[in-house]
Write a structure and sequence with these properties.
Protein name: IclR family transcriptional regulator
Strand order of the largest sheet: 5-4-3-8-7-6
Shape: elongated
Number of strands: 8
Pfam family, one: HTH_IclR
InterPro entries: GAF-like_dom_sf, HTH_MetabolicPath_Reg, Tscrpt_reg_IclR_C, Tscrpt_reg_IclR_N, WH-like_DNA-bd_sf, WH_DNA-bd_sf
Distance between the termini: 36 Å
Keywords: DNA-binding, Transcription, Transcription regulation
Largest sheet: 6 strands, antiparallel
Order of helices and strands: HHHEEHHEEEHHHEEEH
Oligomer: single chain
CATH topology of the largest domain: Beta-Lactamase
CATH superfamily of the largest domain: GAF domain
GO molecular function: DNA binding; DNA-binding transcription factor activity
Number of domains: 2
CATH class of the largest domain: Alpha Beta
Strand content: 15-25%
Amino acid sequence: MNYKNKTVVRSMDILNLFIEHTELTFQEIIDLSGIPKTSVYRMLTSLEEMQFLEKGSDLKYRLGLIFLKFGSLVSSRIDLRQVAYPVMKELHDDVEEAINLIVIQGEEAVYIEKIDLKQKVRLFTAVGRTSPLYAGACSRIILSFQSDEKIRDYVEKTELRKFSEGTITDKEELYKLIEKARNDGYTVSYSELETHTSSVAAPIFDHNGNVIAGLSIAGIEANYQEDNVTIFSKKVIEAANEISFRLGYMK
């Protein structure tokens, strides 16, 4: 049995209009919602009194500041690992490769979650392990989506030390890979942290549009040739986008 309150549902219909519209006039709300004029007037009055909406001197309605308070509370109570894990598990079951979740910590990246139950050959990665932001796909994808100023500051003051045969140690090459990652939405690494290992990573964004983590599919380098990279990159982007969406990110 459906016990939804009609007025509450219609009020939500009005608020949902502001997901795609920054501001709306009274008539625009009527036209877009399809709700009768008298009902819209009553609901707008109530929503304005409760500070869910505010009306400017131009007579246009906008979301009220109360949403900032609620948004801050929600975002502060979201556990990234808890949100990401079911998406990571689904991705792991699909590709049967290791799935890593990495966050930025100072000027390094740290692994905070990993799933590799179905991977035939285990990689030497573990929760708590750190890596430099320039080395490895999952670390570099976080670096790639920082501001231009932060990227320049980091690259120029960082010594690019070699960890394995594929580690990027040339700064011009690193800048090119960062630019490519921004254009493609993902990045790939080959033997950058460990020889004969590869990964494909995509960025995760919070509700403010800031990159807060990287998600990667990782495994033995032989499995990361052109065809598989095409498949893995699409899947890791979709998974990272889903986690971002669950964190409140709206493109």
